[in-house]
Amino acid sequence: MASSSLAGSSSGYLSTDSTSSSPASTSLHPGASSSSSTPPSTTAPPSKKQLSGWKHSAAGSLGGMTGAIVTSPFDVVKTRLQSDLFKHSTTAYPRKGAGVTAKAVPVRSGVAGGLWHFWDTIVMIRRIGVEEGWRALYKGLGPSLVGIIPARAINFYFYPTSKAYLAKQFPNAPTEKPGQTAEDSPLIHLSAAVVAGIMTATGTNPIWVVKTRLQLSARKKTLPASFYSAIPSPTSPLPRPIATSAAALSASASAMTGSHAHATAARPSPANALSMTLDIVRHEGIRGLYRGLSASYLGVSEGVIQWVLYERFKRIGKTTSPHLDEPRPLLSYIGSIVGASGGAKAVASLLTYPHEVIRTRLRQPAVHGVKKYTGLLQTLKLVLAEEGVHALYGGLTAHMFRVVPNAACMFLIYEVVAEKLGS
Predict the structure, then answer these.
(1) DSSP type of residue 221
(2) Using only C-alpha atoms, what is the Rg of the chain?
(3) Residue 370 forms beta bridges with which residues?
(4) What does each C-alpha distance from 156 to 64, 265, 270, 419 come to in angstroms?
(5) For residue 233, what is the DSSP state?
(6) Deepest of 207, 274, 308, 346, by most Cβ within 10 A of its Cβ?
(7) pLDDT band for position 117 (50/70/90)?
(8) Where are the domains of the chain?
(9) Residue 257 near residue 218 (C-beta atoms within 8 A)
(10) What's the chief localization of this chain (predicted)?
(11) CA distance 373 to 366
């Protein structure tokens, strides 16, 4: 039932009603004597303390903050690979003095395209570290933390409270098995997730706009001229496709940064979150802080899929675990929480990833005073026309490296903290 303890399935802390007086609770102790002078209500096992809304928020905020810190480098890499401001050229520049003819980089599609995504992630991490310093891999972490705390607080507040409210309003909601309550209904889970997703996207969109702008602002270190000439030669021990890609990415770094710097020379990129926020408001107005909101609403579907699958995966783990109603030590259910949360996030991200690319493009700064991407459908059509379908999956590898461990870490800490607050 929805009020079962976290030790059994960790689903008890996503419920706000109490069912301690249900018949199922009294049937757990069949050995109790009917003639006992003790009142029947005291023979039932004590019910788990149900959490109030703010405790859900506190536990979710702590989990989200921890996950954001651990996976921040992949967030920066993902954002840059999603943007067209950091696309490398389609030809490999020859090494100075080597007399090598430039070769076209192979088209990225199919299984090979997936390998190229992985290689792009590795090269982008190295390029950021060498050209901008390893601290640049944590660009936007401040706004991320500022955004994660209210975002997770809003999400983890509205999901369980909406689920409890909707279950009371629709007590006959369809369930998968007899004996389940309305809070176990997939329709209730879906509806609560929609409410939580819309509230979260609306309340935190300005923070994510500032974070994206900071991550797209490249500030290069001064590098020796020999760095850009150190491109793998034809005798490189690396496989030819990998050597060619590395050559293209390394050699185009100076050209890319030069064009990006020229595009933004008229308006130097702010260096911190406050100045970036003021810059956006000054040049684009308050509406500039809500760029990409339509794509964020489209991304609510990801949160819906994630929550529904998380509830489902936890229930699967519960049905395969012995002694469901007995308290279990923390180590015994870490695996089920990590597996349910990571698996749910992986599936949801793969199904809905293109909206992430569209949202990043919408939040890009103007180039030469011109906004290339102006709307959801316009952005989708333009990306497909100029770059093809594969561009909608740019940065997917870095994204998966970030969101799967992030979700596992966040939900694990949430469930553990919720258990402590509810004990």
Answers:
(1) P
(2) 26
(3) 367
(4) 10, 42, 33, 15
(5) P
(6) 207
(7) low
(8) 51-85+134-221+270-422
(9) yes
(10) mitochondrion
(11) 9
Query: Is 404's pLDDT higher than 70?
Result: yes
- Ramachandran sector of residue 323 (left: φ over 0; alpha: ψ -120 to 50; beta: rest): left
When pLDDT is averaged across residues 28-39 and rounded to a whole number, the result is 43
- Tokens representing 73? 């480098």
Mean pLDDT, range 147-161, rounded to an integer: 89
Confidence bin at 94 (pLDDT 50/70/90) = very low
Amino acid letter for position 45: P
Residues 210-230: pLDDT tens digits?
888 887 876 555 555 554 454
Average pLDDT of the chain to the nearest whole number: 73
Q: Are 168 and 17 in contact (CB under 8 A)?
A: yes
329 has pLDDT over 80: no
Q: Which residues contact 387 (CB under 8 A, 6 or more apart)?
A: 84
CA atoms of 383 and 358, how far apart (whole Å):
8
pLDDT grade for 350, boundaries at 50, 70 and 90: very high
* Cα–Cα distance, 185 to 163 (Å, whole number): 10
Q: Cβ-count burial of 189 within 10 angstroms (0-12 exposed, 13-18 middle, 19+ buried)?
A: buried
**Residue 142 identity:** G
What single-letter amino acid sits at 278? L
Q: Token digits for 128?
A: 């950021």
**First-last CA distance in the chain:** 18
Average pLDDT over residues 140-159: 86
CATH architecture of the domain with residue range 51-85+134-221+270-422? Alpha/alpha barrel (1.50)
d(CA 168, CA 192) in angstroms, rounded, equals 13
Q: 27 in helix, strand or coil?
A: coil
Distance from C-alpha of 311 to C-alpha of 40, rounded to nearest angstrom: 32
Which has the higher per-residue pLDDT, 99 or 399?
399
Phi (first) and psi of residue 79, to 5 degrees = -60, -40
Query: Among residues 6, 9, 47, which one has the least CA distance to residue 28?
Result: 47
Residue 109 contacts residue 390 (beta carbons within 8 Å):
yes
**Rounded Cα gap, residues 84 and 137, in angstroms:** 19
CA distance 10 to 63: 15
What is the rounded average pLDDT of the residues 269-287?
86
Task: Tell which phi-psi region holds residue 44, choosing left (phi > 0), alpha (psi between -120 and 50) or beta.
Answer: beta
* Cβ-contact 152, 60 below 8 angstroms: yes
